[in-house]
Write a structure and sequence with these properties.
Layout (H helix, E strand, L loop, with lengths): L5 H28 L4 H5 L11 H10 L11 H32 L5 H10 L9 H10 L6 H5 L6 H13 L2 H9 L4 H12 L1 H16 L3 H6 L8 H9 L8 H21 L1 H9 L4
Helix pairs in contact: 1-14, 3-14, 4-8, 4-11, 4-13, 5-8, 11-15, 13-14
Amino acid sequence: MVENRPFVTFLSHFVLVVGLVVIAFPIWMTFVASTHDQATMLRSPIPLLPGKHLLENYREVLSSGYNQGSGGIPLFMTLTNSLIMALGVALGKIAISIISAFAIVYFRFPLRMIFFWAIFVTLMLPVEVRIVPTYGVVASLGMLDSYSGLIIPIIASATATFLFRQFFLSVPDELAEAARVDGASPMRFFWDILLPMSRTSIAALFVIQFIYGWNQYLWPLLVTTKQSFYTAVMAVSRQATVVDTVPSWNLLMAMALLTMLPPVLVVVVMQRQFVRGLVETEK
């Protein structure tokens, strides 16, 4: 039974609208700034409505960039690098984690739980803590300035392994017994039963790990020295941190907005699967 309480309804909607405005206003100002020229952005007050230079600004940053901070790197190239890195990190984390969780749950081997807790303990060791030895290994293997150097060192995920393990533990043992009686091999059981059952969890983890890979800044900054491997986040940062000059705020805001779009599109497209993967309890 839903109570009809107009004041509570109004208050909840008011708080929701205020929160939406607080979140959306900076994004709106980013869009507005990306549609004006530099002279307008340097004058006070800052405009609140879009200007007439939208296509011009976006065409410039996508095709040629601009020569402040990053040497005129086309944003299209850095977006491609970020997309490759984000997809590689997301798919790699899911593949390694789900296979690791499958082995831990369904195979009995010595020190099985010790290996699992060793993986789990790495949650307390973020990339920043182990970054120096990781960089040394990557450099010694000749993986600097490469997609493998961007992706492989951060491809393991204790969180995803733990989540898949908990999901597999909730799968009824009768399914594994039935598959064994029917003569299915362990990998056949994995491909035909466990993997389809895990699709919502995979979708939720894909969204989370894609955003994680897309937003990486420190690791790409260390392992890339060639502009051809710069990511979009790196390009935006380099354009913003210029010396002895004023950044071209209109072009910088256009770059920032284009850099935000891919993860937003992933969340919007996979919103239903993402929510189901986080809240679904029926197996």
